[in-house]
Amino acid sequence: MNSDINLLLNNKVSWLADCGPSEDIAISSRIRLARNLEGVPFPPHATPAQLNEIINTVEMAVQRNKELEPFLKFKIGETSDLDKMVMFERRLISREFMEKSDPGELLVTADESFGIMVNEEDHLRMQFMRSGFQLKNVWQEINRIDDILSNQLPYVFNKDLGFLTSCPTNVGTGIRASVMLHLPGLVLSNQINAVIQGVSKLGLVVRGIFGEGTQNLGNLYQVSNQSTLGESEEQIIERLGNVITQIINHEKNARRNLLETNQPFLLNHVGRAYGTLRHAYILSSAEALDSLSALRLGVDMGMFSSVDIHTVNELFIIINPAHLQKYAGKELDSSERDIYRAVLVRERLKASDRGK
Amino acid sequence: MNSDINLLLNNKVSWLADCGPSEDIAISSRIRLARNLEGVPFPPHATPAQLNEIINTVEMAVQRNKELEPFLKFKIGETSDLDKMVMFERRLISREFMEKSDPGELLVTADESFGIMVNEEDHLRMQFMRSGFQLKNVWQEINRIDDILSNQLPYVFNKDLGFLTSCPTNVGTGIRASVMLHLPGLVLSNQINAVIQGVSKLGLVVRGIFGEGTQNLGNLYQVSNQSTLGESEEQIIERLGNVITQIINHEKNARRNLLETNQPFLLNHVGRAYGTLRHAYILSSAEALDSLSALRLGVDMGMFSSVDIHTVNELFIIINPAHLQKYAGKELDSSERDIYRAVLVRERLKASDRGK
Lengths: 356, 356
Hints:
The structure is a homodimer. By secondary structure, chain A is α+β, with helices and mostly antiparallel strands. Chain A has helices at residues 6-9, 14-17, 48-64, 81-89, 95-99, 135-152, 184-188, 192-201, 233-261, 263-279, 285-300, 309-318, 321-328, 334-354, and strands at 26-35, 71-75, 105-109, 114-118, 124-131, 157-158, 162-163, 175-182, 204-207, 220-225. Chain A has two domains: 3-232, Glutamine synthetase/guanido kinase, catalytic domain (Creatine Kinase, Chain A, domain 2, 2-Layer Sandwich); 263-354. The radius of gyration of chain A is 21 Å and the shape is globular.
């Protein structure tokens, strides 16, 4: 039986609600692994019957396992567009998976830390997420689960190439590790482009919160590895982690420098953003993200003792269109969303005020 | 002996702090009378010795009178530029009086409801101010004082023309009556220009808060009579009052209409203004006035139970440059004023919040 999307909506999202290392700058760490099963073509070339067979095989493997947490289960073909959009906004499924019509399924733990997209581009796309900057812990977690599953699932593995995948760019380790960073200091001091260029030269990729083309929203940047071949998982994570550490230091310096050389500008930037979020009645998505970014900076700087950083983190997700419509309990057009977004933000920040 | 400007700064301003009729739209009512004394040329043509003689004569007349309240006394030649600017911002003296170098004096009651500029363009320019829309009461008050003074001061009066004045436009009654109106509804609904044109055709004058050229600041408009000849004071006040009543009704309709047809726009306009005033750290004079106007509209509409309308009224005055520098206790350049203006506004609104 399929699960209800409300099981997700009513929960705190662990990777947003928990505390994590360097959480003033690193929102979350994520690792995903691409895996395929022997004897069945990769999803783009498989028949619906074969894809359903994969779903059954994976379901049985995870259910059989006492070591794994229980999973919520969402059959993509039986899920409404709005609910799929909610999963996308929660970073549980990809845009491609959201739009597919072939048999596919999302398996996800109730705390949303671990999920498997079955029959996205590969038979299994599993991901593990934690708040803050903790790639090594995330690797241990997902590696443990992968080991368990590999005992029950016949992964396609070539001793020379490693794991085989639908797209050649994932062959080898099938790993993509990423950290979502909040970099308002580098943006406000006009250093961000130099940092992005530097990171790109090191063979890493910088993207926006929801992937390509969303680069600047809320000053959130996902930094991830490009290549999956020629290095071990640990080496990939080590190399990525070293660069992340450097970016975090750059951001810290930028913030300190702004505070020392132009404190009124910074206070004004943050204060006005809070004023807007707390008191506006019409709020576009872009303005909300920009203002949340400034507010988060203010919280990090200790300006708003009443506002919890995890409330701000969660707002980054729930101000998106599908979440707004789920909370409102009805379809909303663009201008209705701008009004309801303002309601939701005001209420959350007001509740945060009262809490302290 | 001269008085200290702090006697004014530490007081509440009665015409801002008291309640008055229609105070949701009418900030204040003011009447000034121009009078001159026999035997001495009008100030532009008098010698310093003659001007000093006028000052002595007026001082003795007001001191001798038990029926009059005590006056604070400011010799314009012994007052700093900053202190004169404070008086100008409090609407106690005119721009011309502020800039003059000949002997002149301001006599003003401690509550600032009544004042006399001695040796402005005329020997006496006296004014009476009350909060709200109450021209008739103000006329009774100033007429009573004028009667008392006329017993002791030899006013220049011609039985055909009436009171003679330095400038022919004031001859006759020497009266200028004005009401300061807050008209955000007419501005937001683009009706203000039609109203101003209509009022002008009736022989009345519309100006900004500090006179000509300040038309749009804070959506505050002073409406006053143009002519002083050919009608009695009561007729002038009656005619002006009728027009003011109509403008107030127009403004009420405009507000009601905005609330009925575009409530989110209105709430957003007001909420954002409050957010800016409450949380900005850099605040220009123009933005402060616009935001205060929107906040006052919100208070009138009952949106901010914690904010007192008189706090907002007073902010319209004390955010001006001279007041800011007096409160700061030092000279401030333009960007320092923008920072200190934000401090003052935040503190006042915060105190207002705590008060309820």
